């Protein structure tokens, strides 16, 4: 949209929902700028967006299509604006991200609302800024601010950036008048107008900074080419202007065609897709203002914190005063530490805590629109609790269980209203982890599911729908993967070999380090509970049980698979563990042999792929991409590898199927081989 405000031309970007810089928008902006240039009555220009977005950057859906190459390319448009003989001011509201921020950086002035969120999130897509961001930002805001923004990808508010050198002015409201004023002011001052490119950086300082930062990259960052490319691009900012831009573009294009960026872009869209329920389930969610949480342990307290943060009223119910006090203490300590760290205002924390109603009185439940049970993982205990919930909750309240593995139907049947029951499986720490599995029981009503999904969004989670099967999506796949890793111990690998191979692939932690962290007794208890129903012909690895029998329950007891001196994990497993493992191999009649890192990675990934295919065939997962979202968000699977399904789709199919059969033979009786066509066709 183009309109005149006195002598200033205001160009309003209008490409819903987020003003991504599609070919059409780029063409319209270029035409509007040209119109303003040619109109002798115009003395300056303002580029403005809408409340939600100035612009969220390049249109990611165009990547790899001819549209992306349609002229003007983003870089050309920015050069055009920068060279405009009349001053151009960007007025920033909502988000200015990626190419959107780069557009603003090419303008001669920038005015932002305090609440505007400015950032260069390209790293989340496996990219670097590709339209001058790595060149203009360090010139305007300095190397440290620039790298912090480019490396973290996290947006900062106008208010936070007020003194950064990035913005001419930050206003609480009245953005357009402030931008008009700035444009008029620049016009009055006359050419040359401020341009980031006119500033230069000291090459010696740049090189020193870049080499220091190279040393600071974490192992996971080193696995992702975009992190090194960011530093290379920043290093090129010390060159002359055209050379810096050329190098940035070159690196951007290399990354854009890389499998890592493709995987991350796939994850970006898969995450958004996961929140969209298939049409049949698109019922109106029930209103939720008050949530009751039963059980104030690790999970209950974490769930309470995220509900309080979302502005909901929370009734926290425990079985006795002592447990209640402990739970309440967890919540209080969380807010205290946020305030102390300067991450939350004391008034905001106090308001959140004021919405908490701790209680041991079940009649309080009548006030709740939604109840989340987070008591011990024991079917009988949960069933008793649900009988009580049924007796006290108001008609129409949604009733959820946070069970990790138990049958949601067996819990729902304890109530007179199974249609109101579903699973809401949060991940630990519940106030941090974004993933939320929304579990559909046999009788769960459509609007109850819709309420679960909507609550997930209110809590700023990433809700993924799953069917009611053992372990749902995530724990089911994780179990299959962990089992295969245990087989590899018996076959010849040591725990540290398995862990380091999988970390080298990009997993946040290996399975045995994870097991030690969460405590081996959880799995031990579950194994004992399942012992009676286990098929004796199945390959069963008893290493974990033997560790537990020796009191090695993981980090908390100072030893598990690894031993821990002063809390730090020793790198290699000790003689006790190796003895247990060697004996397990002997008992199974296995001659231990070396497994390479590639063998280990492939077998662990195949285990995930196999169960992903089974889950999809069984209808537990509605889409293959949901499985990838769950693994990346909840289990530390490297997002830049896309997830197990994405990974499988990059492999040679015949080799994959052949290896799967080999793995089935290694896994013994009861191993179900999936038909991979459900994932790969
Ligand atoms: N390109 C194409 N589509 C985009 C997009 C983009 N850059 N950003 C968002 N969308 C789409 C989403 O896919 C979604 O579509 P849908 O409704 O069909 O599912 C819709 O816009 C709304 O997005 P969200 O559901 O994510 O809405 P939110 O309000 O939760 O978040 C947002 C808005 C903060 C802008 C978030 O969408 C976001 O972070 N977007 C990505 C921003 C980004 O990464 N920009 C950099 C792009 S790369 C680049 O600019 C290269 C340059 O350096 C050359
Ligand atoms: P926890 O042991 O820390 O807390 C359970 C709480 O429930 C205790 O405070 C206990 O006093 C309370 N409780 C027990 N019976 C009760 C009753 N009848 N009425 C009221 N309160 C009662 O357990 P945690 O780890 O918080 O787990 C809770 C649930 O969340 C389990 O089902 C678990 O499987 C699930 N879960 C746990 C995760 C984890 O990492 N800890 C992750 C995801 C789900």
Automatic annotation (TrEMBL):
UniProt cross-references to Gene3D superfamilies, sorted A to Z: 1.10.1040.50, 2-enoyl-CoA Hydratase, Chain A, domain 1 (3.90.226.10), NAD(P)-binding Rossmann-like Domain (3.40.50.720)
Pathway annotation from the record: Lipid metabolism; fatty acid beta-oxidation
The UniProt record lists the keyword Oxidoreductase: yes
Catalytic activity: a (3S)-3-hydroxyacyl-CoA + NAD(+) = a 3-oxoacyl-CoA + NADH + H(+)
The entry's keywords: Fatty acid metabolism, Isomerase, Lipid degradation, Lipid metabolism, Lyase, Multifunctional enzyme, NAD, Oxidoreductase, Peroxisome
3-hydroxyacyl-CoA dehydrogenase C-terminal domain boundaries: 471-564
Domain of life: Bacteria
Domain 3-hydroxyacyl-CoA dehydrogenase NAD binding intervals: 290-466
Record's subcellular location: Peroxisome
Listed name of the protein: Fatty acid oxidation complex subunit alpha
Higher taxonomy: Bacteria, Pseudomonadati, Pseudomonadota, Betaproteobacteria, Burkholderiales
């Amino acid at each position: 949209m183009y309109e005149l405000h006195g002598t200033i031309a205001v160009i309003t970007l209008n490409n819903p929902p987020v003003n991504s810089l599609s070919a059409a928008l780029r063409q319209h902006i270029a035409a509007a700028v040209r119109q303003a240039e040619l109109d002798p009555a115009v003395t300056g220009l303002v580029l403005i967006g809408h409340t939600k977005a100035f612009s969220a950057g390049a249109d990611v859906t165009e990547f790899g299509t001819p549209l992306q190459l349609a002229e003007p390319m983003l870089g050309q448009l920015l050069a055009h604006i920068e060279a405009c003989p009349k001053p151009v001011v960007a007025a920033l509201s909502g988000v200015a991200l990626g190419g959107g921020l780069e557009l603003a950086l090419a303008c001669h002035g920038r005015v932002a609302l305090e609440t505007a969120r400015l950032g260069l999130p390209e790293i989340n897509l496996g990219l670097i800024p590709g339209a001058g961001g790595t060149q203009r930002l360090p010139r305007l805001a300095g190397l440290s601010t620039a790298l912090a923004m480019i490396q973290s990808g996290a947006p900062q508010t106008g208010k936070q950036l007020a003194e950064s050198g990035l913005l001419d002015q930050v206003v609480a409201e009245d953005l357009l008048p402030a931008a008009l004023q700035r444009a008029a002011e620049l016009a009055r001052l006359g050419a040359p107008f401020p341009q980031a490119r006119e500033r230069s950086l000291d090459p010696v300082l740049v090189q020193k900074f870049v080499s220091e930062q190279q040393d600071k990259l974490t192992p996971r960052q080193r696995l992702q080419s975009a992190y090194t490319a960011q530093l290379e691009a920043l290093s090129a900012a010390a060159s002359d202007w055209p050379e810096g831009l050329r190098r940035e573009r070159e690196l951007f294009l290399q990354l854009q065609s890389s499998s890592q960026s493709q995987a991350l872009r796939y994850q970006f869209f898969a995450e958004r897709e996961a929140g969209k329920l298939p049409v049949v389930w698109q019922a109106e969610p029930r209103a939720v203002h008050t949530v009751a949480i039963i059980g104030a342990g690790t999970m209950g307290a974490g769930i309470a914190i995220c509900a309080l943060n979302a502005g909901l009223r929370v009734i926290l119910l425990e079985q006795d005063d002592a447990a209640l006090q402990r739970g309440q203490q967890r919540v209080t300590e969380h807010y205290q530490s946020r305030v102390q760290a300067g991450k939350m205002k004391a008034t905001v924390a106090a308001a959140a805590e004021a919405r908490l109603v701790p209680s041991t009185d079940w009649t309080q439940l009548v006030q709740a629109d939604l109840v989340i049970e987070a008591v011990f993982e024991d079917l009988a205990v949960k069933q008793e609790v649900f009988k009580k919930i049924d007796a006290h909750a108001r008609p129409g309240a949604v009733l959820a269980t946070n069970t990790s593995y138990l049958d949601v139907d067996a819990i729902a049947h304890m109530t007179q209203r199974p249609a109101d029951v579903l699973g809401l499986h949060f991940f630990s720490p519940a106030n941090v982890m974004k993933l939320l599995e929304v579990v559909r029981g046999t009788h769960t009503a459509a609007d109850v599911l819709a309420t679960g999904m909507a609550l997930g969004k209110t809590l700023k989670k990433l809700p993924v729908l799953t069917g009611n099967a053992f372990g749902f999506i995530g724990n089911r796949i994780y179990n299959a993967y962990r089992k295969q890793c245990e087989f590899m111990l018996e076959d010849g690998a040591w725990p540290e070999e398995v862990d380091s191979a999988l970390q080298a692939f990009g997993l946040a932690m290996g399975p045995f380090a994870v097991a030690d962290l969460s405590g081996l007794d959880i799995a031990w208890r579950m194994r004992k509970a399942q012992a009676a129903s286990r098929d004796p012909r199945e390959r069963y690895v008893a290493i974990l049980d033997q560790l537990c029998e020796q009191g090695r329950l993981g980090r908390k007891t100072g030893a598990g698979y690894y031993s821990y001196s002063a809390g730090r994990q020793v790198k290699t497993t000790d003689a006790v563990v190796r003895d247990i493992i060697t004996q397990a191999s002997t008992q199974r009649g296995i001659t231990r042999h070396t497994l390479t890192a590639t063998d280990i990675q492939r077998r662990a990934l195949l285990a995930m792929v196999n169960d992903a295919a089974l889950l999809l065939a069984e209808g537990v997962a509605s889409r293959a991409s949901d499985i990838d979202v769950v693994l990346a968000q909840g289990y530390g699977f490297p997002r830049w590898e896309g997830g197990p399904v994405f990974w499988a789709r990059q492999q040679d199919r015949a080799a994959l199927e052949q290896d799967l059969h080999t793995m089935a033979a290694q896994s013994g009786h009861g191993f179900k081989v999936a038909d991979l066509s459900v994932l790969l066709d």
